[in-house]
Design brief:
256 residues; mainly alpha; 68% helix
Length: 256
């Protein structure tokens, strides 16, 4: 902390009830399905005036119009519109070497499912779940440490699904399968969030420019990953780039 902070301390940063994107998205999805401001105030544990203030926000109005248009479509049409965008996200993830996306695609294909459709279905399911919320959301609290230590490796007595006569190799295989399923669910939720963000970008004014910007972002991540694995080459490339900039600035080279 700088010594001047003690003389003139900064005021605490204000936290708005709908500051997080997930809160604004969930509220827009619910209100697009017909929920009232009073109901959303109850669900979000905020005064009604905060929801009414949110409704006056121009960006939220665009977001609400987007989800109202989505909610008005039949289920299969919603899936059909979202699946191509989901496929583009998966393709970009594979092109940039995202192993989480690669494992998700292999997992879904191995079980005979279309990865893009799975993303679209999860997006629609989460939007419908947000519209059905009626009880106040639980207050956010810090996670308490576990009361008991985790089971040591090789001890499978805590798992009721494993009979005593099974070999340890079978228990390890079952544990690995559960871990893969858990990781796949987490990745599906992450990709569904990504799909929601890109659908919002295309549905709230960016239009066709959203996909090129997403592709540029994916390419930038790929370039960053490439040079991160080659630090010596990246330094030489930076030196050459700086030299090219000087040549461009001074015509034939830096001044003597």
């Amino acid at each position: 902390m700088d010594w001047t902070d003690s003389l003139a301390p900064k005021p605490p940063r204000r936290r708005y009830p709908f500051w997080a994107r997930r809160d604004r998205r969930r509220t827009a999805q619910a209100m697009a399905a017909g929920r009232t401001a009073q109901e959303m105030a109850l669900v979000n544990r905020v005064p009604v005036m905060e929801v009414e203030k949110l409704l006056r926000d121009e960006e939220f109005q665009e977001l609400l119009r987007h989800y109202s248009a989505v909610a008005s479509l039949p289920y299969e049409e919603r899936i059909a519109r979202l699946a191509p965008l989901a496929l583009s996200i998966l393709e970009m993830g594979l092109e940039t070497g995202d192993m989480r996306v690669a494992m998700f695609v292999l997992h879904e294909q191995h079980r005979g499912r279309d990865p893009a459709r799975s993303m679209a279905e999860r997006f629609v399911a989460r939007a419908e779940a947000a519209a059905r919320e009626t009880q106040p959301r639980p207050e956010r609290r810090e996670a308490a440490p576990p009361a008991e230590p985790r089971q040591p490796p090789g001890d499978w007595s805590h798992c009721a699904a494993i009979p005593e006569h099974q070999e340890e190799a079978e228990a390890l295989a079952l544990a690995d399968l559960r871990r893969v399923e858990r990781d796949n669910r987490a990745e599906l939720n992450r990709l569904a969030d990504k799909l929601a963000s890109e659908a919002e970008r295309m549905g709230t004014g960016l239009g066709p420019s959203a996909l090129p910007s997403l592709r540029l972002e994916a390419v930038a991540r790929g370039v960053a990953r490439y040079w991160h694995e080659r630090p010596a080459e990246s330094m030489q490339a930076a030196i050459r780039l700086q030299g090219a900039r000087k040549i461009g600035r001074y015509g034939t080279g830096p001044p003597s």
